[in-house]
Amino acid sequence: MLDIKFIRENSDLIKTACENKRVDVDIDGLLKLDAKRKIFLQEIDKLRKTRNEIAEQIKMDFSKKDELIEKGKNIKEEILKIEKESEEIEKEFNKLMYLIPNIPLSDVKIGRGEEDNEILRHEGIISQFDFKPQSYVELAEKLDLIDTKRAAKISGSRFGYLKNEAALLEFALLQFVSQNLIKENFIPIIPPVMIKRQPMAAMGYLIRGEEEIYYLPKDELYLVGTSEQSIGPMHCDEIFEEKNLPKRYLGFSSCFRREAGSYGKDTKGILRVHQFDKLEMFSFCRPEDSEKEHQFLLSMEEKLIQLLEIPYRVIKMCTGDLGDSAAKKFDLEAWLPGQNEFREITSTSNCTDFQARRLNIRYRNKNNQSNFVHTLNGTAFAIGRIIIAILENYQQADGSIKIPNALRPYMNNKEFIEAKKH
RNA sequence: GGAGAGAUGGCUGAGUGGUUGAAAGCGACGGUCUCGAACACCGUUAUUCGAUUUAUCGAAUCGUGGGUUCAAAUCCCACUCUCUCCGCCA
Questions:
Q1: Distance from C-alpha of A3 to C-alpha of A303, rounded to nearest angstrom
Q2: What nucleotide is nearest A196 when CA is compared to C1'?
Q3: Is A197 (CB) below 7 Å from strand B?
Q4: From the Cβ of A243, is strand B under 7 Å away?
Q5: 0.90 cut: is pTM over it?
Q6: Is nucleic acid strand B under 7 Å from A85's C-beta?
Q7: What pLDDT does A415 receive?
Q8: From CA A88, how far away is CA A295, in angstroms rounded?
Q9: Is the pLDDT of residue A236 over 90?
Q10: Residues 16-45 of A with CB under 7 A from strand B
Q11: CB-based contacts of A74, cutoff 8 Å, min separation 6
Q12: A405 CB-to-strand B distance under 7 Å
C-alpha cells in the first residue's frame, strides 16, 4: 500500500511505475474517487460537528431540550444518508489502493520480464566433469534419496519423499544455516503455516496470485507459500523502539504452493513441488537502512552458498519481474550441471514501507516521532533446491555424492553418499 | 467440545450515558541540579483523516463490525482474540 498523499502529488511517477511493473491500475480513476471521497468526508465532518454542538447545548440548557432533540434527530438522518452514499466510493477507493504495487527503486532496470533481468556477477568455479553429469533425478533414484513415485500414490504429482541422506541433509542444512545466521542476530523462529486472510492480504499475496495459494475453506485459513507471510505480520499494529532495529528473524517452515499455471514445467523430481521446506530471513529496519540491510541479506545468501562451494550467479530483477510488494529484488541462481543451466535458489526483496503500511508496523525515533519501518525478506535456503544443487555439483564418476565440507560436521563426518546395497 | 472471565495509549492500569482523547503509575524525551552520571524536582509525550493564512481549527479512533440514543469507552447484538476450569489429545 502506498500513501494516498504521495499518490496525489506524484501521479505521473506512479503511472510510470505501474507501467514498468506491467500492472494495469486506473490511477486517474483513483484520483477522481479520492476527490469525491474528500467532498463526502468534509460533508460528514461538518454534519458531525453540528451534531456534537447540539449534544453540547442539550447538556447545558435543558429548557430547549425538546426542540434540540428534534434538531439532533434530523442531523442524524442526514449523516446516515450521506454515509450510505459515500460507502460505495470508499469501497471502490480501497480496492484500487490495494491494487497499486510498490514503486521500484530508482536503480532498478526498466524491463518487461525475465529476459530483461541483469546478471550482476558469477561466483564460484563450475566443475568440469570427465563424465556426463547426471540429473539429480537419476542420482537420487539410484541412491534411494527421493521418492516421487510413491508420493504420487499418496499425494499426487509434485510431491516427494526425502529419504536416507537426503533427509539427513535437510537436518544438516538446518543446523548449518542456523549456526551461521544466529551469529548475525537473527532470531530463530518456527512460525505457523496456516494464517488468516487479513495478514495474507496485507503481505500483498492475495491481490494477484490468489490462484497460487492453498486455502482451507472450513477453517478460513491459508497455507503459507513462504514463512515471510507468517513472520511479517507478527508485529502488525506494533511500534518498535528505534534501538531494537533492525529486527531479524530466521524462520523455518514448510511452504505450500499450488503451482497453478506451471503445468508441464519441471514436472519431474522435486525442483517444483507443492510442498517444500525453507529457511527464510526477514528483517524490519529503519527506512534509511533498508538498502544496506538488503545488501546484507544478499551477502548472507551468498555466504551460505559459497560455504557449500556451489557456483552461482547473482541476478538483479528488472521492474517487470518484481512482484507487487518489492521495490528491488535479487535472485541467486545455482549452477546445476545435470540440467546444464542456472536455476533460482534464493530470492531477496526490499519491500520498503509497502507491507509495513498495510500491517501498520512503525518505529519511534529519538524525537518521539513514529514512522513506518521497512521490511525485507530473503531466502536463506530453499532446502529441496539446495539438495538438488549439492547432488548435481558433488556427483562422482561412480554415482556417489561427495558431501560438502561445510556440512560434514552435521552429517556424522561422512564424506560420501554411497549407492545402497540391495 | 462444555462453563466462566476479559480485551482501554509505548507498557501497567482506572473509568457503567453528557468538558473522558481518556485518571494514576511506569517508560521515553527535554530542562534544573552535577565535572559527569544516578537520585530528586519541573515540563513534554497517541494515531489517522480533512481544512488552513502552518498560529491553529474540525472529524474519527478505548479488540472488530453492527445497533439503541440528541449524545456511547460506558447500554444491546454478532464476531475475533486472550486467559481460567472441565473434557479430549501428539
A1: 36
A2: B80
A3: no
A4: no
A5: yes
A6: no
A7: 95
A8: 43
A9: no
A10: 38, 41-42, 44-45
A11: none
A12: no
CA distance A343 to A306: 16
d(CA A335, CA A332): 10
* Chain centre distance of CA A286: 18
Strand B–CB A413 distance below 7 A: no
Percentage with pLDDT > 90 across chain A: 66
**Protein residue with the closest CA to the C1' atom of nucleotide B50:** A42
3-state secondary structure A185-254: CEEEECCCCEECHHHHHHCCCCCCCHHHCCEECCCCEEECCCCHHHHHHHHCCCEEEHHHCCEEEEEEEE
By C-alpha to C1' distance, B45 is nearest to: A368
Strand B close to A195 by CB, under 7 A: no
Q: Which nucleotide is nearest to A45 (CA to C1')?
A: B59
Q: In this predicted structure, what is the pLDDT of residue A282?
A: 96
Count of Cβ atoms closer than 10 Å to residue A269 Cβ: 21
pLDDT of residue A358: 87
Residues A258 and A211 sit within 8 Å (Cβ to Cβ) = yes
Confidence at residue A335, expressed as pLDDT on a 0 to 100 scale: 96
- Quote the CA–CA distance of A75 and A301 in Å, as a whole number: 61
ipTM associated with this complex: 0.85
